[in-house]
Amino acid sequence: MDSTTYNVSENAGQLLIEVDNLSKRYPTGSSELNVLNQLSFHIKSGEAVCLLGASGAGKSTLLQILGTLDRPSEGRVLYKGEDLFAMNDENLAQFRNKKMGFVFQFHHLIQELSALENVMLPALIAGESKQDTEAEALKWLEFMGLSDRAEHFPSQLSGGELQRVAIARALIRKPEVLFADEPTGNLDSANSQKIQDLFFELRNKLGITLVVVTHDLNFANKFARVFKVKDGRFA
Amino acid sequence: MKFYFWLARKMLMSKQGLFSGATSFSFAGLILGVAALVVSMAVMSGYVETLKTAMTDITADLQVVKRGKVRQNWEEFSADIRKDEPRVKAMMKFGYAEAVLAHKGQVSGVLLQGVDADQLNNVLQLHKRIRTGQVDISGNNINVGIGLAKKYKLEIGSKIFLVVPLATPFENSGFKRQSREMTVTGILDFGKNDWNERLVLGNLKALQQLTEIGDRYTGAFIKLDHPDSAGDVALKLSDRLDPSFSIMTWYDVNRNMFEAVVIERVVIFLVVSLIVIVAAFNISSALYVFIRRKYSDIAIFKTLGLSPRKIRMIFLSQGLIIATMGTVFGVLLGYLFCLGFLYLQEHYALISGSVYKLDKIYTDIRIIDMLAICLVTQIICMIATYFPAYKGSQLEVIEGLKNG
Predict the structure, then answer these.
(1) How far is CA B164 from each of CA A194, B213, B218, B398, rounded to the nearest angstrom?
(2) What pLDDT is recorded for position A4?
């Protein structure tokens, strides 16, 4: 991918996400389970941030709230000063499509669509033409080293290839921030290493802001900023 | 919109899509329901059309009948009717008489319809109803229906006697008879069962002589530019003509039957629509299961920027695709059933003429019926798919990702 066509590094260092007194509680019968407890922090544009913690610590919930996939019980999340949860569902969906990319532990590709169509999906949702989108998707697949897999369906791809298609899908809309929830959790060590390298290549070449959840210490050690999450708080 | 249909189609047509496995039976049910609607509406419309054609072919578009008999000179009478009415294309005088047909020791009551032989082909469409022989009612020649011909084993050239009882003016209970030997020159399918078994078509002059009414006649058969203008022309004539004239359109002659058919059409449409509704329920439950299997995909769609409203659009597009395909295949299947119905009628006596008045019904697939069927199917399917679509759109992303 030619970084001149997609580079958000000119905003590097500017305040991107501000989290203010964020809490998340889930009702469990008569009581409530506090998953996140009054968290406040910020992320600057172009930063690579890692949320590290054991299972059940609340790191995935935090990532989902930052990515607007879930709503907080209390507190605010500001994106460039704008309160995200003041938006309605329609606007929030558009915002997510335009500004954010997501990669999960499981690839979550649509089985009925080819690799190329899966990558095209976010751009098609945004209403872009199929012709332009196809050319863009092919570029991303080429960047991921998957140009010969474009017409393959998810069932015909290996674990590493599936995850790279999912990353291409997350990037086609040229998001400012990429959220990844245990992106290497389901891969063998060789593929895991390739994906980790890919994330930092993306960050260095494109200036994209990375927010990655992992419980892999080796992976976490590569990040400049690591938030250790324990019992809903930063340790 | 294009995107929703593209994605809906991709998800529907895949190996694990909605058309896979047992759910295809729900779709087959929808097709059968639509086909049943098409056939029932085509048969009902065909019944009306068959009856209408029989009426206009045998008794013209409009009849003007005078109580008693018309004494007026035909030229004056016809000029009165034609006056300021350009929609009248042709007309002829006619007469009716109850008679007894006697042939080879058998007798039965018949209705003798005498018409003006010179104008016959301009007013009535008998040539297309001929089965054997020809339309020839000159002199003492007559045409009979296929039912009567079968009953008396009549052939072209058969001689029969027509006997007309006439009241005597001086005795209340007495009557005299007039009879005449007639020759069968044509055997026709009059279109209605009772006509085929009872109607004898002859020359008006012969009828006048048999019934001793001189030059008088019952009234006029009138051919219009179009049968559907009969009601309007009848209204105008009733304003102009003497009240002793009775004016009847082809519809009036069988008004009860036509009105009954209108009600039957609605009832049959509603009853047969139940098949489509049941099929739509099946599709709805299949879609619920399908959406349950697609929780992970729905979560990803939301993650990628589809709002709940747009998720609903995808599943509603699926409903629209199912409804459209069901309607198209159903209409095609219905058309094939109609052809099969016509074929079976040609080879087997499917319809009892004594019960339904007609012993053969042509199917009439009308655009308006097809549009109504398409609309009803689409509405039923859209309602059936809305609820699972709504449920799917309300899914929480987190829940969907966990299920994936």
Answers:
(1) 109, 12, 16, 94
(2) 41
The 3-state DSSP class for residue A104 equals coil
CA distance B171 to B378: 72
What residues does A27 pair with on adjacent strands?
A: A32
* Cβ distance of A90 and B307 shorter than 8 Å: yes
- List chain B domain ranges: 2-53+257-403, 88-224
Chain A residue nearest residue B302, CA to CA: A93
Q: Is B131 on the interface with A (CB under 8 A)?
A: no
User: Would the pLDDT of A9 be above 80?
Assistant: no
Nearest to B307 among A89, A117, A169 (CB): A89
Look at residue B171 in the predicted model and tell me its pLDDT: 66
Query: Per the CB < 8 Å rule, is B304 touching A98?
Result: no
- Taking an 8 Å cut-off on Cβ atoms, the answer to whether A127 and B3 are in contact is yes
Interface probe for B, chosen from A125, A130, A167, A169 (most Cβ of B below 10 Å), is: A125
Q: Which residues of B touch A67 (CB under 8 A)?
A: 303
Chain A interface residues (partner B, CB cutoff 8 A): 64, 67, 69-70, 89-90, 92-94, 96-98, 102, 104, 106, 108, 110-113, 117, 121-122, 124-127, 169, 173
Question: What's chain B's Rg over C-alpha atoms?
Answer: 31
Contact A69 B296 (CB under 8 A): no
Read off the amino acid at residue A110: I
Beta strands A15-28 and A31-44, pairing class: antiparallel
What CA–CA distance (Å, rounded) separates B213 from B207? Answer: 9
> B11: which chain A residues are within 8 Å (Cβ-Cβ)?
110, 112
Alpha-carbon distances of B24 from B16, B272, B287, rounded to whole Å: 12, 21, 12
Question: Which pLDDT band, with edges at 50, 70 and 90, does B85 fall under?
Answer: confident
Of B297, B305, B398, the CB nearest to A94: B305
Mean pLDDT of B55-59: 89
Give per-residue pLDDT as tens, A107-139. 889 989 999 999 999 999 999 998 889 999 999
